[in-house]
Amino acid sequence: MMTETITLGKALNHGLRRALENDSKVVIMGEDVGKLGGVFRITDGLQKDFGEDRVIDTPLAEAGIIGTAVGLAIRGYRPVCEIQFDGFVFPAYNQIVAQVAKMHYRSKGKVRLPIVIRIPYGGGIGAVEHHSESPEAYFAHTPGLKVVTCANPADAYSMIQQAILSDDPVVFFEPKRRYWEKGEVDLGGDLTKAFPLHAARVARAGTDATLLAYGPMVRVALDAAAAAAEDGRNLEVIDLRTLSPVDYPVIFESVKRTGRAVVVHEAPGNIGLGAELAARITEECFYSLEAPVLRVTGYDTPYPAARLEEEYLPDLDRVLDAVDRAFGW
After folding, report:
1. pLDDT digit string (tens) for 71-108?
2. Is the torsion defined by CA of 31, 36, 42, 46 positive or negative?
3. Strand pairing of 201-204 and 235-239?
4. Number of other residues whose CB lies within 10 A of the CB of residue 282
């Protein structure tokens, strides 16, 4: 094993480097991904080592980036597109939902689009508007797209490589507030033995209630579970990892054991992923539930100014309050 303690951002960098090394058809493209190494330095050093033909600085034109990626994918390449910030993806939204998501079906399976669209998302970094969005529900709602998100460095390293290897288009959400958090990563591991890309993981085993979270909120859920343990409550935390398709069997097994479920995500609650999870859990686990499925989410407002974001983002206290309400039924 070549285990190192590195940040989530550095793990993504190593994963992208390994993908470039393993397949000459992998190309990285986006705004400032080359010489600058990306606004978060995720692609730092890659253009220097692999050249400008494989790590490509594009114009400030998200629709052009994705449109070009479609053409490259049809010609046999595996483009990895970086959208600089979550709120910048919307100029490319038409290309993603009208072309990337539908080409395989439109061609009766003859054309595959192995495109990865990397999107740093979420708040917590004190940024201005359009830099702290959580647009995952738009893409998870769209048939033909796979949607995943990592929550720790080990997953970041393996999942970005697995996404690039996939013949399906993958929207890869990266929790920007976690870029600098460290964890152990096996840089020499066999990717074929890595945890499956579209599988949920039990991040903490428990018996009394299930916390469902993904991306930046997994850390919040784990902290809440640790705090709840001081009051004698044993909470299970599931890191969803994949938002489309959702790994429902892992979720259902947990909720049937614990009898309670709380879903946590940064995005607004209205028609968010939590609503779908609550509906599916209620359908499948109705006779096991001791309380309604509760949600802890961002508010149904545009993302606020930076100095107010800590009031907006779900935190430990709001999660624990939901757990208390679940036990109050």
Report:
1. 999 999 999 999 999 999 999 999 999 999 999 999 99
2. positive
3. antiparallel
4. 14
Helices (H), ranges, the chain: 8-22, 46-50, 62-74, 93-95, 103-106, 136-140, 153-165, 217-229, 248-258, 273-285, 309-312, 316-327
* Tens digit of each residue's pLDDT (9 = 90 or more) over 5-53: 999 999 999 999 999 999 999 999 999 999 999 999 999 999 999 999 9
Token pair of 26 as six digits: 């992998």
Contact 237, 222 (CB under 8 A): yes
Encode pLDDT of 204-243 as tens digits. Answer: 999 999 999 999 999 999 999 999 999 999 999 999 999 9
* CA geometry: angle 249, 251, 254, nearest 5 deg: 105
In degrees, rounded to 5, the angle at the alpha carbon of residue 319 between the alpha carbons of residues 315 and 325 is 150
Taking the alpha carbons of 155, 157, 163, 166 in that order, is the dihedral positive or negative? negative
Catalytic residues: 131
